[in-house]
Amino acid sequence: xxxxxxxxxxxxxxxxxxxxxxxxxxxxxxxxxxxxxxxxxxxxxxxxxxxxxxxxxxxxxxxxxxxxxxxxxxxxxxxxxxxxxxxxxxxxxxxxxxxxxxxxxxxxxxxxxxxxxxxxxxxxxxxxxxxxxxxxxxxxxxxxxxxxxxxxxxxxxxxxxxxxxxxxxxxxxxxxxxxxxxxxxxxxxxxxxxxxxxxxxxxxxxxxxxxxxxxxxxxxxxxxxxxxxxxxxxxxxxxxxxxxx
Length: 245
Description:
Layout: E1 7-11, H1 13-22, H2 29-38, E2 43-47, H3 57-66, E3 70-75, H4 79-88, E4 92-95, H5 111-127, E5 131-136, H6 140-147, E6 153-159, H7 161-164, H8 169-188, E7 192-196, H9 204-208, E8 215-218, H10 220-229, H11 231-242
Parallel strand pairs: 1-2, 1-8, 2-3, 3-4, 4-5, 5-6, 6-7, 7-8
C-alpha cells in the first residue's frame, strides 16, 4: 500500500473528559495538544458541546492562542456556538449534529433536512474567514446535497463509524467502499476531504490511503492509548499506522 499523505488532527476532548470527572485543573487538553503537535500532528480538534461535558469555552480560547497548526472546532449549528466561533476564530469549524442524551456523536448531519440552517451558519462563519466543513455519513444523497448549499462550505468529513464497527472482513470491505464512493463524489464537487470517528491503528490505513484524503480527525483511541504509553508515543504510533511518509 502506497504511503499516505493524509494529515492527523488529534481530538483532545477526552483529556478534558478525564479532567471534568473530578472538576480538577488536570489533565490539561492544552498541554495534550502541545505534545500531540510536537509528535507530528498537523492540528488539533475539539468539540465544544452545548452541555459543556468536556471541552470548556476557556479551553477553546487557550487553544486558539497556542495551537501552531490548524485548530478545528466541532460544534452544532446553534446560534450560541456560531457566536463563540465568530469570536474565537478557529481555522476551521466542522458542523456536527448534537443530541443531549448521546454518548458521542451518533451520525452525520442531515443536510437534506436541515440544509437551510446549515447554510445560514456556514455563511456567517465563511464571511468571517472561518473555513467550514460538514460531518456527514457516507451517503451519496447527503454528499450531493452539500453541493447545492450556499454559504461557502469548503469541505466535508466522512463519518467512518460503520466501517470501524464492521463485524468481519466482508462487512469492512463493503463499508470502506461506501466511504470511498462518498469521498470520490465530494471531491468531484470540489470539496476538501476529511474523515474520522472510531479510527484505530488497526483500521486506519485503508481510510488514510483513499485518493485525495487530506486529514483524519482521531480522538478517543489516541487518548485511550495515551493513558498507557503517553500522548507522544500514541501520536507517533498512529502516524506510522496511517503510513505517513
